[in-house]
Write a structure and sequence with these properties.
Number of strands of chain A: 15
Largest interface: A-B, 62 and 61 residues
Number of domains of chain A: 2
Oligomer: homodimer
CATH superfamily of the largest domain in chain A: PurM-like, N-terminal domain
Helix content of chain A: 25-40%
Largest sheet of chain A: 7 strands, mixed
Number of helices of chain A: 8
CATH class of the largest domain in chain A: Alpha Beta
CATH topology of the largest domain in chain A: 60s Ribosomal Protein L30, Chain: A
Distance between the termini of chain A: 18 Å
Strand order of the largest sheet of chain A: 10-12-7-13-11-14-15
Chain lengths: ~325, ~325
Amino acid sequence: MPSRPENHDPLLGELSEGSILRAILSRTPPGSLTILGPGDDAAVISAPSGSVVATTDTLVHGPDFRLAWTSGYDLGWKAAAVNLADVAAMGARPTALLVALAVPRDLRLSFVERLADGFRDACEALAPGCAVVGGDLTVSDVLTVAVTALGDLEGRSAITRSGARPGESVAIAGELGLAARGLAVLFGRFRDGETPVPVDPSRLGDGEAAAVAAQLRPSPPIGLGPMAAVTGATAMMDVSDGLALDAGRLADASGVTLALDGHALGSDARRALAGGEDHALLATFPEGMLAPGFRVIGRVVEPSGDGVLCDGEPVDVRGWDPYRDWDSAAG
Amino acid sequence: MPSRPENHDPLLGELSEGSILRAILSRTPPGSLTILGPGDDAAVISAPSGSVVATTDTLVHGPDFRLAWTSGYDLGWKAAAVNLADVAAMGARPTALLVALAVPRDLRLSFVERLADGFRDACEALAPGCAVVGGDLTVSDVLTVAVTALGDLEGRSAITRSGARPGESVAIAGELGLAARGLAVLFGRFRDGETPVPVDPSRLGDGEAAAVAAQLRPSPPIGLGPMAAVTGATAMMDVSDGLALDAGRLADASGVTLALDGHALGSDARRALAGGEDHALLATFPEGMLAPGFRVIGRVVEPSGDGVLCDGEPVDVRGWDPYRDWDSAAG
């Protein structure tokens, strides 16, 4: 929601880059590990472990989000959350975000102000101590939010995808399939022909509001990543493209097969296997160990021809992503 | 130049994200400080100082470059160089790049392969030991290259913009105005109406080829940033928007006036003051100190009403940037 009446909400094309950046940065306070924040050629962030974890992920209007469905606040929150999840999946604690915005001239100032609010609040809620330390603003016809997240391993080794060994447990922290259900609601209910239309909350049934929120403003369990590392996780990754696809990648990297238990995947195992964008944490633990917040969904077994089995059967689902091949630029 | 005949040079829209990423990453070897390179949720980079310098800068087709003038190789090189310069301007040594690409489906594979070559070669030439450690690939109608650069301070403090004190020397390392001259040649000579057309080298006069190269493939003196810090630089920044504008920012941050000597700015002082995109390093040094590769162009004096004087007169030039307000999307 804009914090001022629309007649005082200028188009970005009417403002200087400096004044837009000031409006954004006044909303994003420094974090506990920020040594030097925005305003110079570069930021300086503490890296107490003597190494830094770094990842980048971009949201592009069209393939990754639609303005008709997504507010500035939600977009900032989601862009932060998906990057924080990648840091957490290494077992690291997020320390800083850098945000590169490419914005159309006809976007309003309130939109990027709320975007900044979303970044700030996602950091506070999901990764306390992490903050926006730098950014870049440029003009583009296609709204694009490119985020880099940094993190610290707190003296531990990174938890990669390749450490799973037969006999270990396969475990999950976070939602499976809820964001995909939300996307299905958006595509099924809030379009006029091919054009997305704003979400009317009164038309959302039981559970649908939570599903739509999971899609638009995901809350991955960032703090559980470092906790899994402390507890002895042997491999970890975040589930962004669907459990089946991502578990297959972990199995591949580790040279094992993951044998999942369908009953552990909830009432809709197929959606849990196929649905992406929840950014749950998938991890493997030695027998008898399990980090708080994780639940066991299967076992690591000797490699068979298939990377992932569910109830003994090969899993053949493609991560469901209607955005991917959907070319309509409207909305 | 594509490394294969065009009939074996597929459109990106025909390929999977994974195969494009593999083609890119096979061309960018790890650096000396890369602990874990691409392929997992995040990279891990050594940060021997216990802190990390981080900056992000984006190049968008249209405002920042035109495909008619810029090859994939040049684009990769420039996107690396402008980010490396921001790290160097803090007195830090670049350690890693993260590259977020948003690419149109009708771009050819050879273009992004050459882009990767440009990133690799710019790192090798300008910042040995630095490497591409991670990235992201997404689809967009507008070709966008968002880069984050990381660096290490090697145990020193960061050199900010705010440390200049009256009595010190103002010095420069690198070109002033050459890239702007190159841009003027492109705009003046290589357009069909408003549409950019490819550069024909045979039409470039004496010195023009070097100017065009400075615009399309800049070589800022990255290694001199850490050297300036070692030598005792009190303030430093990279000159991206023109000397007059950027020196004004440094003067502002330091609460001083920079009194420049017009004779020290070369044969075309006006272009040296106004022209951006050379990414020269502007630094101040205590009396009697000067890092190798730097030349004195003036003195720091007590603050007057103006941030920057040239031969005693206030400088009133706007960084010259014909891209900025040029809306034509062609080329």
